[in-house]
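Hello again, I could really use a second opinion on something today. I've been staring at a protein lately and its backbone has me curious. You're getting the sequence in one-letter code plus the fold written as tokens. I'd be grateful if you could look everything over and explain what you see. No rush at all, and the record is pasted right below:
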Amino acid sequence: MKPAKPTTPKGTRDYTPSMMLKRNFIIGHIKEVFEKYGFMPLETPAMENLSVLMGKYGEEGDQLLYKILNQADFLSKVETSDIEKGSKHLALKISEKGLRYDLTVPFARFVVMNQNDLAFPFKRYQIQPVWRGDAPQKGRYREFYQCDADVVGTESLICEAEIILMMHEVLGNRLKIKDYAIKMNNRKILAGIAETVGAEGKEAELCVAIDKLDKIGKEKVLNELKERGFTDTNLEKLLPIFNLPANNQEKIDFLEKFLENSTIGKQGIEEVKKVLKYLQSFSSTLTFEVEIDITLARGLSYYTGAIFEVKVRNSAIGSISGGGRYDNLTGTFGLEGVAGVGFSFGLDRIYDVMEEQSLFPSQTQSTTKIMLSNFDSEAEAYTLPILKKLRDEGIKAEIYPQSSKLDKQLKYANKKQIPFVVLIGSEEMSSGIFTLKNMQEGTQQKLNIEEIIKQLAI
């Protein structure tokens, strides 16, 4: 019998050393920006109780949750009547835990459990994997990393403005991603739209459908809304929303008129205007634009105010960052009235965009900056103290682990993309002057160890 061919589960992938170096490059910049804005690191378990996860992501989100079978005989408590009640009921009989779907709900659970020990407003960032049973496709994985930053315990819209600033600082200033759009909307505006078109209370259905506009188009969104109970009259009144002007101020002018009889809709407009005003307060000459997008809904059911999304234009990868305000997420765990707002960078999607745009610097390709040669036992004994000296100076260095011909050692350095090699033979040992080979340029220099250290520090 042939051994099974090794594969990874669909929607997952291995991260090779060269991929990990690039990912760490992205994570390093994200961490620096998060900490610069006052956020503290946090980690939570990969699995949560289903009682924590279920009902927080809407109907579709619940279906995408990965559930973990109970240990031992997971069928021991199952009766025929449980099977007859369907898969949703049965799942809760054989599974008590699930893999986390995002980092926000576990964060809310953490806040409630540790509320007496936290200083509010509490700002945390979290960089960990999450799991969703989505259909795998380009830019969409079943296991992927999120890089979250959230603040709870304040209703200040300064937080929304700072989220937009962090999005731009990471993506534009640091990672140099080209041609992306930062989009903003407000769930209160969407609630106001539902009210204005005569479908009050159906903003959840409106959000789920309209969030798919980019993927399925206007006609299919309208068909889905009809299936969800919107009448022809409701849909006819909704049509102007799909043809708004491009200019932010013109959109605001339209909305103020369209939602003039909706109290909640007008609150949403005022919040959008205030966020834009805060951005101007940070800098009167912003180097980037924020686009008000009334069709932006973000399907997660816990959002209550501002919502954000970043998409790269002319790319099939889709959203690379998103988030919003959730003014009572902790209320589902018994802690009422704790306002929160946050966002997430999709690490895997950012990685794919940077590969697409060839943005990774060459130095991300290797952890080792310099390799020392190894020709024989005498040279090896001479070289080890030099290796230690380089490392003591903070230089990432290694020695070729066994004595070999020079050609083999240089091939190894090239394959690992090590930029410098030091050749140490009998002549170098007697003189203390070593040959430093630049592997990228093919040039060589004769230097002592202090000069090599100085050269590598440049």
